[in-house]
Write a structure and sequence with these properties.
4 helices, mainly alpha, two-stranded antiparallel sheet, about 10% strand, 2 domains, elongated
Length: about 90
């Protein structure tokens, strides 16, 4: 691969990353507009994402939700349980 090809490949990769970032921002904007609890967990149960409705309900920030330390994990577990209980109460009503 010559220098020109490397430069073109690097530019294409940068463009792809920028497009992914823009799509992520748009997806966050859409999920934050939904008035329901939306959260995403890894297979091991650790949180990846929570929409603004969840954050408003719990008083946490997205950084709090994603933090890996033990104290944050315990508050995040309480958050999920609180969201689940609230959703169950609303579905029974």
């Amino acid at each position: 691969m010559d220098v020109t090809e490397q430069h073109e490949a690097r530019a294409a990769l940068q463009t792809a990353f920028e497009q992914i970032k823009a799509e992520e921002i748009e997806l966050r904007r859409m999920t934050d507009a939904v008035a329901s609890y939306i959260y995403v967990l890894r297979p091991d149960g650790t949180p990846l994402y929570a929409n603004q409705t969840v954050l408003d309900y719990t008083g946490l920030t997205l950084e709090d939700v994603q933090r890996e330390d033990q104290r944050a994990r315990s508050s995040t577990r309480r958050m999920w349980k609180g969201c689940a209980r609230s959703a169950m109460r609303r579905s029974r009503a």
